[in-house]
Amino acid sequence: MKSASLLLFFLLFIASMLLLKSSAYAQSAADSLQIKVHFLYGSKPAKGADNSERKQFGGLHGGHVTIEVETTNFGFGPSNGFHVIGRKNNRHSKWYAFPLEYWAADTADAGEKYTTFTFPVSKDQYDSLKKKMHEYALATPYDYAFIGMRCASATWDILAQAGILQTHSKSWMILRCFYPKLFRNKLFKQQKEMRADIHRQPGRASRKWEMDKRKFK
């Protein structure tokens, strides 16, 4: 009888250890979830490089913002042209999802200048972001316009919808994230709060690249 009790105690102890290990593993996996926000910098051909380099939309105040989740790079852009002022109907906009290797070939491997913020997110935030990405890819919720939603403001919007960034009005996002640098500066200021790691990729010398504020270097 005593040996049976000891055996039962031993089996219950092993079961409890396995449950604790499984719970710890699940918590560790959830804690390891992360996303990346990539900022390509605005630029123009360097002096003497006009024949080898082309002009880009926006020049030094251009650039682009995308979100990396798993093996996909997700970004907002125009489709079949764009409007000067955003419209509710006849939208010229699309959320684009590209395999990560396509993005790498067009940016890092091509000598583009960019800064990447990598920060942890909760499972709820992660799942919410993936759900929003799927919804936005199927039906873009707004037009792409010069005075309206563009890549920076749209990226802020989807991250806010997922509970990762603070929610603001549409007019706030349009004005305060009018182009990528304004958004990027906000993430620099929130780096410690968001526990973000920052990676910088210098651009090729044949282009003059947009600069960040000195205090963020």
Shape: globular
* Head-to-tail CA distance between termini: 72 Å
Low-pLDDT stretches are 6-30
Q: In the residues, how many domains can be counted?
A: 2
Arithmetic mean pLDDT = 83
**Residue share in helix:** 25-40%
Strands across the major sheet, in which order? 6-4-3-1-7-9
Can you describe this structure?
With 217 residues, this protein is α+β, with helices and mostly antiparallel strands. Helix content is 39%, strand content 24%. The protein has helices at 2-31, 100-106, 123-138, 151-161, 170-176, 180-189, 191-194, and strands at residues 34-40, 43-45, 64-69, 72-78, 83-85, 93-99, 114-120, 145-147, 197-201, 207-209. It has a six-stranded antiparallel β-sheet. Strands 2-10 form a two-stranded antiparallel ribbon. The chain has a two-stranded parallel sheet with strand order 5-8. The termini are far apart.
Topology of this structure?
Elements: H1 2-31, E1 34-40, E2 43-45, E3 64-69, E4 72-78, E5 83-85, E6 93-99, H2 100-106, E7 114-120, H3 123-138, E8 145-147, H4 151-161, H5 170-176, H6 180-189, H7 191-194, E9 197-201, E10 207-209
Parallel strand pairs: 5-8
Antiparallel strand pairs: 1-3, 1-7, 2-10, 3-4, 4-6, 7-9
Structure keywords:
217 residues; 6-stranded antiparallel β-sheet; alpha+beta; two-stranded antiparallel sheet; 2 domains
Summarize the structure in short.
The chain has helices spanning 2-31, 100-106, 123-138, 151-161, 170-176, 180-189, 191-194; strands at 34-40, 43-45, 64-69, 72-78, 83-85, 93-99, 114-120, 145-147, 197-201, 207-209.
